Amino acid sequence: MGTLWSQESTPEERLPVEGSRPWAVARRVLTAILILGLLLCFSVLLFYNFQNCGPRPCETSVCLDLRDHYLASGNTSVAPCTDFFSFACGRAKETNNSFQELATKNKNRLRRILEVQNSWHPGSGEEKAFQFYNSCMDTLAIEAAGTGPLRQVIEELGGWRISGKWTSLNFNRTLRLLMSQYGHFPFFRAYLGPHPASPHTPVI
Ligand SMILES: *[C@@H]1O[C@H](CO)[C@@H](O)[C@H](O)[C@H]1NC(C)=O
Ligand SMILES: *[C@@H]1O[C@H](CO)[C@@H](O)[C@H](O)[C@H]1NC(C)=O
Ligand SMILES: *[C@@H]1O[C@H](CO)[C@@H](O)[C@H](O)[C@H]1NC(C)=O
Question: What span, in angstroms and rounded, lies between the C-alpha atoms of 94 and 75?
């Protein structure tokens, strides 16, 4: 019985094995090619990512300007771990105040951008900034409107005792209006910063 079974079963088992041997080899080769291809793609992707992320070399004119500015304000004779302020800004006093100079440069740059006639996309941030700037610069319209817009704001915020129309202040409502509609935080803030004349002395 056993021999008969093994005799019967052996050719049946052998047939498909013999028939699929070239396929098995082909499958292995294809799998290997696929894995190698995937590895290659992955390596190329990694290489591309490492090439494109991280700091780029300083080549643009803006970057070169900034580099010159920082090199001119710092004092590289000072060890940065002992006195970082002097290392980074040691010579800034010889020139103008770096922050003030940067702020002035930024304002001039913004002004140049905003004064150029450009077709901004309606509703975009740029278009809103452009409209806002133009409405501030339109002194004729501001003069023509007179005190109306300001009185409207004062009344919306609860009135003014001097102007007569004063309603008792609803603190919550006024605070909500100020913060949501006017983007203004009415309380004072306290922070620690360097003294303008003596940068190593912190002041509140
Ligand atoms: C730079 O630092 C050195 C060492 O503290 C100092 O002797 C020198 O006067 C500093 N130079 C300037 C321009 O501040
Ligand atoms: C200081 O600022 C003024 C006006 O912004 C500029 O004309 C002058 O060249 C600056 N001085 C130095 C030393 O950078
Ligand atoms: C203002 O808001 C606070 C916190 O939500 C609440 O406790 C208080 O009763 C409110 N005051 C008034 C006058 O509505």
Answer: 11
Q: Tell me, using a 6 A CB cutoff, whether residue 118 lines ligand 2.
A: no
Is the shortest distance between the CB of 108 and ligand 2 below 6 Å? no
Ligand with smallest separation from the Cα of 95: 2
What distance in Å separates the CA atoms of residue 103 and residue 63, rounded to the nearest whole number?
17
**Ligand 1 atom closest to Cα of 75?**
1
Alpha carbon 100 to its chain's center: 22
Quick one: CA dihedral 60, 61, 65, 66, positive or negative?
negative
| Ligand 2 atom nearest to 101, measured from its CA | 5
Q: Is the pLDDT of residue 161 over 90?
A: no
pLDDT by residue (tens digit) across 30-56?
Answer: 999 999 999 998 888 888 777 777 778
Nearest-CA residue for ligand 1 atom 8 is 77
